[in-house]
Amino acid sequence: AKLISILSLLLGTTITISSNHWAMAWTGLEINTLAILPLISKPHHPRAIEAATKYFLVQAAASTLLLFSCTTNALFTGQWDITQLTHPISCLLLTTAISTKLGLVPFHFWFPEVLQGSSLMTGLLLATAMKFPPITLFLLTSSSLNYTLLTIMAIASAALGGWAGLNQTQIRKILAFSSISHLGWMTIIIIYNHKLTLITFYLYCMMTAAIFLTLKTTKSLKLSSMMAAWTKIPSLNAILMLTLLSLAGLPPLTGFLPKWLIIQELTKQGMTSTATIIALLSLLSLFFYLRLAYCATITLPPNSANYMKQWQTNKSVNTLTTTLITLTITLLPLSPMI
Fold this sequence. Notes:
By secondary structure, the chain is mainly α. The protein folds into two domains: 1-120, no CATH class; 146-337, no CATH class. It is built from 15 helices and no strands. Helix 3 packs antiparallel against helix 4 and helix 6 runs antiparallel to helix 10. The model has no long low-confidence stretch (mean pLDDT 88).
């Protein structure tokens, strides 16, 4: 069943990103939604079932809105081509539908709850692979999008992603708000530079994968368990601090590259005030990344004496995690060569 779900995810994504007709794009999104549901509900825990139900309802509503948008456009213009979406109402509905699928503010409420109810590996899929088809649709229809609405949602996402993550103790929820904040950075630049959006998305996926795989290795799900993770693999926990700071966008780590390029592009387009606002809002996110990094490496939990010391356990870190962490930390100096 897991193999069928994974293959269906690949099939749905491929159909959406390669389609030229709205019906096919919609079909790919539906296959994706149905394929991820068994993976979310697999633990058979009430939280997992609740997360799967929320995910299904939101994605079904967004897909219906997307289908309504392209049908309205076909009614007025006679076009089913993805790049020929020209009717103003259809453009507005499409922007809303894809934003709901991605989890942009103000359509973000489902995402932290769904991520919190999923396992770490399913959460990684939700935060990375499941974002790819909607972002591709954004890129294909960028000329048709309602840019005023998109800019407002992007700035609101950067603000709320940082603001709401401040009072969380569950790591998956913190990473969900981190994802919302990064989506704000991706959508602010989507009209002007497609390649920059894709670079930001790929680097975000790489950094998030490194963090999720590290958390899976140390079995950390909340801040208190993260504090005790140093007893399992001390070296991995120390490197986790650098990985988190890279996701925060601190130089000279990899995560600084997309933010640097986006601010540069916005300034070129004469949007200096927007660039300043979104750069200042990223300081909110930086605060909770610093808190995570602090908990991972410096803080000891108040009841540390109760934790069984695990220095002697032979835990090994797999090659994929090591490679991703290395790239997350060191890719910035290599970027001019790429």
